Amino acid sequence: MKLEQLLEGVSYTLVQGSLELDIEDIIYDSRKAAPGRLFVCIVGTQRDSHDYAAQCVADGVTALVVQHDIDLSTVPGAAVLKVESSRYALALMSGNLFGNPSRRMTMIGVTGTKGKTTTTHMIKSVLEAAGRKVGMIGTNGIYFLGHHQETANTTPESYELQKTFREFLDAGCDTALMEVSSQGLMMDRVAGIHYDIGVFTNLSPDHIGPGEHKTFEEYRSWKGQLFKRCTTGVVNIDDENTEALLEGHTCKLVTYGCSEKADYRAGTYQLLRTHDFLGVRFHVSGKDDMDVKVNMPGEFSVYNALAALTVGKVLGLPDEAIHEGLGRCVVKGRVELVPISRKFTILLDYAHNEVSTESLLTTLRAYEPHRLVVVFGCGGNRSKLRRYGMGEICARMADFSILTEDNNRFEKVEDILADIRVGMNKGNPDAKFVEIPDRLDALHYAVDHAQEGDLIAVIGKGHETYRDREGVKTPFLERELLEEYARQIGLE
Ligand code: ADP
């Protein structure tokens, strides 16, 4: 592509060279320098990659985008373009390089402090139930039409993002659905993208501190940017920050929540539990009337489902698809049921610290199980405070705990368990528990000793697929291991 075409929409000054050059690719990592490539110099928090410009040109790079002046005598022969923000330019140029794929799909962005991942999965499930072909990007990775790959950030760098959109489009996707983090907005990763729908879940103080946002107000204002870049905003009207977050919004708003003024509002919800369902049921009224069942527990599942339902409504999807999509949505490793017996309910969850364990156990307790049983351990070579904390919470909140390994890494499992015991003793000296160091034995024990009506939470690993002993990772898929054992012992 000609440099001039690549720069479409970007404000720049040509400092040196010609716009007639052919550019094959854009890079922002100097180690990828090669002829035909354009290197974008970025001022980062750790270093300023303008320092690598000369080396890149020596390695063959054809053009440079800079944000501040560099010594032109060190970059002979290269085209040099100066822009106000090189990250912004990188985003726009990446869009151009990949043919601006986001303009040819329905774009949906989800932002908020909590519930982004769960809500995007629910939206995907609803859209797919309606026959849409969806590509999804978020904390759990990239998914499209049966493919899955991991990602480093919740919102990838703009170049990777645009490249992924291109893959979605080429594979036949009609919709791209993504989590949009405040960092992603602040770092211009999503610059140049217009969303058909922006979704807001909720806001609470988080991501504030060195290297992240300076204040809560700043964090909120970055999240609010999404509603200046979308056509329709689907927003939680019950959150106390909604009004401030939406200041200066330019989109049409459709609201959801439990309060009277919400466009789509949920009435009181019921908790439902069987061996293969652990969720909520509620009635939606307002602009529409429908009954909804979601196979995910807790009050926040009502909110996440309402957000997904509202997106479905904005897109004009049929009620049956919305109903079906919400009913069957599963997020791997998050309150993921493994229905191996009619007698009890067993689930996997990634809760691996005090706060998430407490929140999970509180949610599960509300279902009034015969016993609430937890299978858990803590990672080796990590904070001991976590061991005390998780031990304390489980001793206080569970009826029975099965202590076992998590990822031991280079520590002895016995030492980790001893630390957990300290916490348990503090939480409840009379807590009932057993110690079974091998996690597979612990899973078998949990199944063998399950009582009618028990709710068993196997926590810590969630969607992880391995266990780490002495730095060696071997496959460990809890879902499969449980299913295999159930088959072996003929469980029904
Ligand atoms: P995110 O992707 O925004 O980090 P997740 O969907 O991964 O959020 O949810 C993280 C945890 O937060 C969940 O395990 C659950 O305990 C809790 N959670 C999920 N949705 C909500 C919500 N709408 N409000 C509050 N907490 C939530």
UniProtKB/TrEMBL annotation:
Residues 333-462 form the Mur ligase C-terminal domain. This is UDP-N-acetylmuramyl-tripeptide synthetase. One of its GO terms (cellular component) is cytoplasm. Its cofactor is Mg(2+). Belongs to the MurCDEF family. MurE subfamily. The modification N6-carboxylysine is found at residue 223. Carboxylation is probably crucial for Mg(2+) binding and, consequently, for the gamma-phosphate positioning of ATP. It holds the Pfam family Mur_ligase_M. Catalyzes the addition of an amino acid to the nucleotide precursor UDP-N-acetylmuramoyl-L-alanyl-D-glutamate (UMAG) in the biosynthesis of bacterial cell-wall peptidoglycan. Its EC number is 6.3.2.-. It is found in: Cytoplasm. ATP binds at residues 112-118. It is an enzyme of class 6 (ligase). Residues 110-311 form the Mur ligase central domain. It comes from the Bacteria. GO terms for molecular function: ATP binding; magnesium ion binding; tetrahydrofolylpolyglutamate synthase activity. InterPro entries: Folylpolyglutamate_synth_CS (IPR018109), Mur-like_cat_sf (IPR036565), Mur_ligase_C (IPR004101), Mur_ligase_C_dom_sf (IPR036615), Mur_ligase_cen (IPR013221), MurE/MurF_N (IPR035911), UDP-N-AcMur-Glu-dNH2Pim_ligase (IPR005761). Pathway: Cell wall biogenesis; peptidoglycan biosynthesis. Keywords: ATP-binding, Cell cycle, Cell division, Cell shape, Cell wall biogenesis/degradation, Cytoplasm, Ligase, Magnesium, Nucleotide-binding, Peptidoglycan synthesis. NCBIfam families: murE, PRK00139.1-4. UDP-N-acetyl-alpha-D-muramoyl-L-alanyl-D-glutamate binds at residues 30, 153-155, 181, 189. One of its GO terms (biological process) is cell division.
